């Protein structure tokens, strides 16, 4: 047994268990946010996949890699998106060195 | 894997109910035909390609080819009953020596006339005459192009196939196919290059139009999304890649009751190369002839019995009712 089981992805529709009202509202919002709008479903799926990888969610990575494949997104396009996520994570980390550097400069003699 | 072995493999679907049980659960059993709008005639398993997903397991060494008497019987029946669409498939239909004669005869019946062609033969000297035959007989061409990316498409169909399809499409475009106002249609079948379901048909059609025009300068009419059913070489692929269990699970979890009402077997009758009758081309490859009292050979055709027949179902049928539904005419629901 592992904490993350691939078959548990099928449990996602049940996450409203014991909080049905909130769960239903979440799914309504989730559907509206990820469905085609000004951005295509394809573009939104690439964004979702990238977020999933930066947030280390194996369920979402599984679901959105498959969805990207289904929508004709190429491996190269997905990898480019991953690099956007990787660059953002690196940038976010390095941008936060501002706080670190400010504290260092304040506290060091 | 022969048909019996394939059915044995499909019989092991783990914790999921057999398709017949699922159909009972949603109170749609028995599935019964609503009529016969499409006569789909499989001219044989002979093909110049050996695609990795092919449920027919067609190829250059297959000896099964429909004879002229069987084709003539199909025409005789079509003359006597109001079946609106003649849908010719294979294998490569062009490799049947009687295709050109059949097209001329069928065109005279004034029905919708479809040929499912892989296009790759059309630029070869021996087969070029079909370019004219298709135009003259106003044949609607349906061709397979699993992806608009060459390398991906060729992984499924063989190296160089994408390039030949594009070249043939350019030739067909120059003759009016896929061009506005010409009345000549060429549609593309998209099926996933791997173990997943096709995405939204409208979104993919938009992408195909844009990419094929920008990258290759070719036009087409509609895109049909087709789910790969676990039959033939695709079943072999699922087993070899250790995807069978997951794929069957996805099919089951994507079960869409609305798609059951639009499944193609309700309005299609499939004719095999030897005249045997089936509810669809997939049943044909699994040797599941029509049953439940309906005649199972074209020589014994009986419209009354066949148009009301009970459909023969098995676990591969989950594929046609997963997600948006799947048929030889693409998705069957907007869901």
Q: Evaluate the radius of gyration of chain A.
A: 18 Å
Beta strand % of chain A: under 5%
Biggest pleated sheet of chain A:
none
Widest sheet: strand ordering of chain B: 6-5-4-3-2-1-7-8
- Gross morphology of chain B: globular
CATH architecture of chain B: Alpha-Beta Barrel
Unreliable spans of chain A: none
Can you write the helix and strand succession of chain B as a string? HHEHEHEHEHHEHEHHHEEHH
The number of distinct β-strands of chain A equals 0
**CATH fold-level label of chain B:** TIM Barrel
Number of strands of chain B: 8
- Biggest sheet layout of chain B: 8 strands, mixed
Structural class of chain B: alpha/beta
Helix content of chain A: 55-70%
What is the CATH homology-level superfamily of one domain in chain A? AhpD-like
- The coarse silhouette of chain A is extended
Verbal overview:
The complex is a heterodimer of chains A (109) and B (335). Chain A is an all-alpha fold and 109 residues long. Chain A has helices at residues 20-34, 41-54, 58-70, 75-95, 97-107. Chain A has a domain at 40-107: AhpD-like. Chain A contains five helices and no strands. The relative contact order of chain A is 0.09. The model of chain A has no long low-confidence stretch (mean pLDDT 95). Chain B has 13 helices and eight strands. Chain B has an eight-stranded mixed sheet. Chain A binds chain B through residues 6-7, 10, 36, 40-42, 66-67, 69-72, 74, and chain B through 147-149, 152, 190, 192, 194, 196-200, 203-204, 206-208, 246, 249, 253.
């Amino acid at each position: 047994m592992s904490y993350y089981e691939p078959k548990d992805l099928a449990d996602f529709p049940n996450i409203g268990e014991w909080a049905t009202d909130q769960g239903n509202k979440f799914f309504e919002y989730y559907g509206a946010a990820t469905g085609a709008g000004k951005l295509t479903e394809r573009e939104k799926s690439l964004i979702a996949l990238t977020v999933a990888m930066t947030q280390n969610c194996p369920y979402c990575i599984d679901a959105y890699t498959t969805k990207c494949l289904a929508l004709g997104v190429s491996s190269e396009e997905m990898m480019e998106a991953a690099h956007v996520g990787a660059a953002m994570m690196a940038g976010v980390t390095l941008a936060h060195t501002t706080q670190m550097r400010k504290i260092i400069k304040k506290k060091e003699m | 894997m022969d048909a019996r072995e394939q059915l044995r493999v499909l019989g092991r679907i783990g914790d999921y109910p057999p398709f017949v049980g699922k159909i009972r659960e949603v109170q749609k059993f028995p599935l019964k035909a609503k009529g016969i709008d499409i006569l789909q005639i499989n001219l044989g398993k002979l093909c110049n390609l050996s695609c990795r997903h092919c449920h027919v397991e067609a190829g250059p060494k297959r000896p099964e080819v429909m004879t002229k008497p069987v084709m003539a019987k199909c025409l005789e029946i079509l003359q006597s009953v109001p079946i609106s669409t003649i849908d010719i498939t294979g294998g490569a239909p062009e490799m049947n020596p009687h295709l050109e004669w059949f097209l001329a005869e069928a065109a005279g019946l004034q029905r919708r006339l479809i040929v499912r062609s892989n296009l790759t033969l059309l630029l070869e000297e021996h087969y070029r005459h079909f370019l004219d035959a298709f135009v003259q007989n106003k044949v609607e061409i349906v061709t397979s192009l699993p992806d608009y990316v060459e390398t991906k498409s060729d992984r499924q169909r063989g190296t160089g196939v994408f390039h030949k399809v594009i070249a043939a499409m350019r030739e067909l475009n120059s003759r009016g196919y896929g061009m506005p106002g010409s009345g000549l249609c060429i549609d593309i079948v998209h099926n996933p290059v791997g173990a997943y379901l096709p995405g939204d048909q409208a979104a993919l059609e938009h992408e195909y139009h844009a990419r094929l025009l920008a990258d290759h300068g070719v036009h087409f009419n509609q895109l049909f999304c087709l789910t790969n059913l676990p039959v033939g070489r695709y079943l072999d692929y699922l087993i070899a890649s250790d995807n069978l269990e997951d794929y069957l699970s996805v099919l089951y979890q994507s079960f869409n009751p609305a798609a059951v009402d639009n499944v193609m077997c309700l309005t299609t009758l499939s004719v095999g190369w030897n005249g045997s009758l089936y509810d669809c081309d997939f049943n044909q490859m699994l040797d599941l002839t029509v049953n439940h009292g309906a005649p199972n050979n074209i020589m014994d055709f009986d419209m009354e019995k066949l148009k009301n027949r009970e459909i023969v179902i098995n676990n591969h049928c989950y594929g046609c009712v997963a997600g948006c539904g799947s048929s030889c005419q693409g998705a069957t629901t907007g869901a």
